[in-house]
Design a protein that fits this description.
The chain is an all-alpha fold. The chain has helices spanning 2-30, 57-79, 85-106, 111-130. Helix content is 61%, strand content 0%.
Protein backbone atom coordinates (compact mmCIF):
# COMPACT_ATOMS: atom_id res chain seq x y z
CA UNK A 1 0.00 0.00 0.00
CA UNK A 2 2.81 2.44 0.86
CA UNK A 3 4.45 1.67 -2.48
CA UNK A 4 1.30 2.61 -4.40
CA UNK A 5 0.82 5.74 -2.28
CA UNK A 6 4.43 6.73 -2.97
CA UNK A 7 3.94 6.20 -6.70
CA UNK A 8 0.81 8.35 -6.75
CA UNK A 9 2.44 11.26 -4.90
CA UNK A 10 5.77 10.97 -6.76
CA UNK A 11 3.95 10.68 -10.09
CA UNK A 12 2.01 13.87 -9.35
CA UNK A 13 5.20 15.73 -8.38
CA UNK A 14 7.04 14.33 -11.43
CA UNK A 15 4.37 15.46 -13.86
CA UNK A 16 3.76 18.89 -12.37
CA UNK A 17 7.46 19.64 -11.76
CA UNK A 18 8.45 18.67 -15.27
CA UNK A 19 5.58 20.53 -16.96
CA UNK A 20 5.79 23.53 -14.62
CA UNK A 21 9.55 23.82 -15.12
CA UNK A 22 9.10 23.52 -18.87
CA UNK A 23 6.49 26.29 -18.92
CA UNK A 24 8.69 28.49 -16.71
CA UNK A 25 11.78 27.98 -18.87
CA UNK A 26 10.13 28.20 -22.28
CA UNK A 27 7.87 31.04 -21.18
CA UNK A 28 10.89 33.03 -20.02
CA UNK A 29 12.83 32.24 -23.17
CA UNK A 30 10.15 32.46 -25.87
CA UNK A 31 7.39 34.35 -24.09
CA UNK A 32 3.99 32.93 -23.14
CA UNK A 33 2.35 34.21 -26.32
CA UNK A 34 4.57 32.03 -28.53
CA UNK A 35 3.62 29.03 -26.38
CA UNK A 36 -0.07 29.83 -26.80
CA UNK A 37 -0.45 30.60 -23.11
CA UNK A 38 -2.10 33.63 -21.53
CA UNK A 39 0.45 36.04 -19.99
CA UNK A 40 -1.21 35.58 -16.58
CA UNK A 41 0.21 32.04 -16.45
CA UNK A 42 3.75 33.37 -16.09
CA UNK A 43 5.11 34.36 -12.70
CA UNK A 44 6.38 37.94 -12.86
CA UNK A 45 10.16 38.28 -12.88
CA UNK A 46 9.80 40.78 -10.03
CA UNK A 47 9.31 37.74 -7.76
CA UNK A 48 12.99 36.95 -8.35
CA UNK A 49 14.20 40.24 -6.85
CA UNK A 50 17.07 39.46 -4.48
CA UNK A 51 17.68 36.05 -6.05
CA UNK A 52 20.61 35.13 -8.31
CA UNK A 53 18.22 34.87 -11.31
CA UNK A 54 16.97 37.59 -13.65
CA UNK A 55 14.30 35.37 -15.23
CA UNK A 56 12.66 31.99 -14.67
CA UNK A 57 14.67 30.32 -17.45
CA UNK A 58 17.31 28.69 -15.23
CA UNK A 59 14.95 27.93 -12.31
CA UNK A 60 12.53 26.35 -14.80
CA UNK A 61 15.25 24.16 -16.27
CA UNK A 62 16.39 23.14 -12.78
CA UNK A 63 12.83 22.34 -11.71
CA UNK A 64 12.13 20.25 -14.81
CA UNK A 65 15.46 18.41 -14.91
CA UNK A 66 16.44 17.96 -11.27
CA UNK A 67 13.11 17.74 -9.44
CA UNK A 68 10.99 16.42 -12.31
CA UNK A 69 13.70 14.12 -13.67
CA UNK A 70 14.53 12.69 -10.25
CA UNK A 71 10.86 11.96 -9.64
CA UNK A 72 10.41 10.33 -13.06
CA UNK A 73 13.45 8.13 -12.39
CA UNK A 74 12.13 7.22 -8.92
CA UNK A 75 8.71 6.27 -10.29
CA UNK A 76 10.20 4.13 -13.08
CA UNK A 77 12.68 2.38 -10.76
CA UNK A 78 10.14 1.75 -7.99
CA UNK A 79 7.59 0.38 -10.48
CA UNK A 80 10.27 -1.96 -11.84
CA UNK A 81 11.39 -3.02 -8.34
CA UNK A 82 14.91 -2.01 -9.33
CA UNK A 83 17.49 -2.25 -6.58
CA UNK A 84 18.18 1.50 -6.85
CA UNK A 85 14.49 2.40 -6.69
CA UNK A 86 14.37 3.23 -3.01
CA UNK A 87 17.54 5.29 -3.15
CA UNK A 88 16.09 7.28 -6.04
CA UNK A 89 12.82 7.61 -4.09
CA UNK A 90 14.78 9.19 -1.24
CA UNK A 91 16.56 11.54 -3.65
CA UNK A 92 13.21 12.53 -5.19
CA UNK A 93 11.55 13.21 -1.85
CA UNK A 94 14.43 15.30 -0.60
CA UNK A 95 14.78 17.13 -3.93
CA UNK A 96 11.29 18.63 -3.64
CA UNK A 97 11.82 19.49 0.03
CA UNK A 98 15.10 21.26 -0.76
CA UNK A 99 13.48 23.00 -3.75
CA UNK A 100 10.72 24.38 -1.52
CA UNK A 101 13.16 25.44 1.24
CA UNK A 102 15.29 27.38 -1.25
CA UNK A 103 12.24 28.80 -3.01
CA UNK A 104 10.87 30.15 0.26
CA UNK A 105 14.09 32.12 0.79
CA UNK A 106 13.44 34.11 -2.39
CA UNK A 107 9.71 33.92 -3.12
CA UNK A 108 6.92 34.89 -0.71
CA UNK A 109 4.81 32.07 0.72
CA UNK A 110 2.12 30.52 -1.45
CA UNK A 111 -0.28 27.62 -0.96
CA UNK A 112 1.57 25.69 -3.68
CA UNK A 113 4.70 25.73 -1.53
CA UNK A 114 2.72 24.11 1.27
CA UNK A 115 1.25 21.50 -1.10
CA UNK A 116 4.66 20.50 -2.45
CA UNK A 117 6.29 20.56 0.98
CA UNK A 118 3.60 18.16 2.23
CA UNK A 119 4.07 16.02 -0.89
CA UNK A 120 7.80 15.77 -0.13
CA UNK A 121 7.12 14.80 3.47
CA UNK A 122 4.62 12.20 2.28
CA UNK A 123 7.16 10.75 -0.17
CA UNK A 124 9.77 10.40 2.56
CA UNK A 125 7.19 8.90 4.93
CA UNK A 126 6.00 6.36 2.36
CA UNK A 127 9.62 5.48 1.63
CA UNK A 128 10.25 4.83 5.33
CA UNK A 129 7.21 2.53 5.33
CA UNK A 130 8.46 0.74 2.19
CA UNK A 131 11.82 0.21 3.87
CA UNK A 132 10.14 -1.15 6.99
CA UNK A 133 11.69 1.59 9.13
CA UNK A 134 8.28 2.78 10.27
CA UNK A 135 5.66 0.27 11.27
CA UNK A 136 2.25 0.91 9.74
CA UNK A 137 -0.56 1.53 12.19
CA UNK A 138 -1.81 -1.73 13.68
CA UNK A 139 1.44 -3.62 13.06
CA UNK A 140 2.34 -5.79 16.02
CA UNK A 141 5.76 -7.17 15.08
CA UNK A 142 8.88 -5.06 15.49
CA UNK A 143 12.27 -6.33 14.29
CA UNK A 144 14.97 -6.63 16.92
CA UNK A 145 18.71 -6.34 16.47
CA UNK A 146 19.20 -10.08 17.10
CA UNK A 147 16.56 -11.07 14.52
CA UNK A 148 17.76 -11.47 10.92
CA UNK A 149 16.30 -8.90 8.52
CA UNK A 150 14.50 -10.20 5.48
CA UNK A 151 14.78 -8.61 2.06
CA UNK A 152 12.11 -5.99 1.42
CA UNK A 153 12.63 -6.17 -2.35
CA UNK A 154 8.96 -6.79 -3.16
CA UNK A 155 7.52 -4.37 -0.57
Amino acid sequence: MSRIAFLVVAGFVALTSFLGGLVMALGSWLGPERLGLPPEVMIPNSMLAGSPFASFLVPGILLAVIVGGTHVAAVVLVIGNHRWGRLMAAAAGYSILIWIFVQMVFIPFSVLQLVYFLAGLAEVGFLLLMLGLLAPEGATHVHTASEPRRSVQGA
